[in-house]
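Appendix B. One record, verbatim.
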Amino acid sequence: MRRFLPLVLSLLLATPAAANTVSVGGLTFTDDYGGFNLVSVTGSGTREDPFVIVEEVGTAGNAVLAIEGWRTNYYSGEHGGASFWVQKVVINATDKQWGTYELELREQLNLPSGYLDGLSFGQPLSTSRPAASDLLPEVVVRDEPLDAMIFSGGGVEPGEQVAFEFIVTDMTPVDRIFLIQRLRLDISAYPTRRATR
């Protein structure tokens, strides 16, 4: 959360060009699978210079961000495989307040990510994995039977933007992964293991 406030303020002052596909730092980010508008992506994916992904979400359905070039163009051995750091800024373009926001990683669009595919929100980091948000500060991590993080404990009003910070790791990377994002009202089905900041 250390850079959220200046980051969000600078984004408010900027006028980013609309884009459906953005290539940066060896990866290609696209909103072609629907559910949101990809506004911009900057950065290089390191801890010091994370990918800053700005999106506008106007529906309660799934928003699917595809990330390509994961294995071919972006290999990092920092955590034993491929990894990158993310700061995501999501603009609430709905007419509803958001009380939760879920992020889920998949290697196959129609199949949840299991333990053996190696993809996760920093699972190799054990208890030190980062996960934070400015407006939804409570974080629940789910490693099985899918890789997901659920942010809650606050609210995001229509027109507001919420920021998230996390890491993506993959011990056996494939060339394309999906970050599925959804609003979820009930997180009771998720046994909790709190992330650390």
